[in-house]
Amino acid sequence: MVAKIKKFSDSTLSVLNNGERRFYVYCLTDLKKDKVLYIGKGFGNRIFEHEWVASRSQDPVSGEIIDRKLKAISKCKKLGRYIISYHLTEVEALAAESALIHFVKSVLGKKLKNKIAGHGPGGISVEELDRRFGFSSLPLNEINPDGLILAIKIHNAFDLDTDEELDYLFDNQDDANLKSRTLGNWVIGKDVASKVKYVIGVHTGLQNAVVSAYEVDGFETMVEETKNGRKQSRYRFRTTSRSEEVLAKLGLQQKCLPELKFGSGGEKAYIRPKTETETEQENIQTTPNPKIKKEKTKS
């Protein structure tokens, strides 16, 4: 069972606070009675404020007087908190909030304590959202893969489709799909391509959060002509692996790699296996010195 949270983690807030698209629409539900109590819009940790605001006489954020209907939220023993949609402008959030309220009142005939029946299409609990975007830092020296890792920048990773069913090739690549974007196409040398064992997708806007990982089964090549008339090879990696399994194998689930450096304007970086010497040196540094006991001489 996921532990109930009182606010979003800093990494989740970094994802949600997307400039002018920092707004989201949310609903509060009574899980025991399976009904929705409230629909609203906001940003940051707004969704959490109702639980303590409802016990007061005035909302410190909006200044609105808290009526007896909203106070029902503070009395709810099993409150569900769901994000319906996020990365909205304030205008979009206001329109979505209004549409949901009117839909519930007119179509479902419910009386809201601001009600939709159920959690709403596309709804996600705040705990699940925080789990999805809650990343912890991992030093690069704690990673020791059994092969070369190619790390790829994916700027809008959290907005991409995460379906993994298709085998993406050059002729059916999909820029709106996370798996397709991770696997290529990449301009690298053939000798490097043949050594790559893993490809990982990295969201640079969140301290290099690792958002995808695949084990390479092979690659295909496409030769193109550059603007200067030169021939250039692009490589697209193939895989039969699943991202969650490879993330677990590499120890990169919900991890970010702030020490990972991409070249100026570059989209690729590499994480190499440690040499035997490096591994031995680390073992020496982490092995405690044995305690030497001095025996007392008998006088």
TrEMBL record:
Transmembrane segments: none
Renumbered residue ranges of the record's region Disordered: 264-299
Organism encoding this protein: Neisseria meningitidis (strain alpha14)
InterPro entries tied to this protein: GIY-YIG_endonuc
Pfam family of the protein (one): LEM-3_GIY-YIG
Listed name of the protein: GIY-YIG domain-containing protein
Domain GIY-YIG: 21-115
The organism's place on the tree of life at top rank: Bacteria
